[in-house]
Amino acid sequence: MTDFDSLSHDEQLPLLLELANTAASNYDLPQGIAVSLINLSENATYKVEAPGGQRWALRIHRDGYHSKTAIASELAWLIDLRQTGVVATPNPVKGKDGEIIQQVSHPRMPRPRNVVLFDWESGIEPGIGHDLAEPFEVLGEVTARMHLHTRQWKRPSWFTRLTWDFDTSLGDENPHWGRWRDGMGMDARKEMLFGRTV
Predict the structure, then answer these.
(1) Which of 10, 106, 179, 180 is the most exposed place for a label (fewest CB within 10 A)?
(2) Tens digits of per-residue pLDDT, 10-26?
(3) Cα–Cα distance, 119 to 123 (Å, whole number)
(4) Per-residue confidence at 2, pLDDT binned at 50, 70, 90?
(5) pTM score, two decimals?
């Protein structure tokens, strides 16, 4: 069996789609759903659509990046933001077993993946040429409300998330997303310019 991580992007996509379809069966969804990829970046995100038009977003978490507890921590905050009216966050959907986080296996993947299903949040992605002044004002207001919320929110005792500081984002020793010097498209000129900024 070839290690999943050694497969090319194009070879991984069909396996992730199989995993997404398996994961969707863990939820009480209508018959005849269609699962399609929205994007693949930190996580693989899929649109799940029922024949009647109802939609959900299915997130397959990247292997080894966030622990199940870290994902549960994110979801605890997201749920509280929604319940307290701070931000209209996507609503996570419980699986048939009553759990929000599902662990789903695939025979060609070395470990089960954490999966979360969310109710679909409709919206419009701004395009080139759109006036973004008003949306950025809204974004600023939402960000301010979230900052205020974090100051008074009582986190669960088990809450854990990655720490983002200089060392873990731009440092050379242990950055969460890898060294910026090794980024795609980096050449000597870009490294010099970005290095001056860092």
Answers:
(1) 10
(2) 899 999 999 999 999 99
(3) 13
(4) low
(5) 0.86
**Residue written as token pair 């970005």:** 194
Residues belonging to the chain: 198
Q: Say which amino acid occupies 121.
A: E
Q: What span, in angstroms and rounded, lies between the C-alpha atoms of 178 and 105?
A: 27
Domains of the chain, each with CATH number or no CATH: 4-121+130-152 (3.30.200.20), 166-197 (no CATH)
33: tokens are: 């759903």
Distance CA 97, CA 29 (A): 13
Own/partner pairs, 26-29, CB within 8 angstroms, 24+ separation: 26/95, 26/96, 26/97, 26/102, 26/104, 26/115, 27/56, 27/93, 27/94, 27/95, 27/96, 27/102, 27/117, 28/96, 29/56
**Token pair of 111, please?**
């470990």
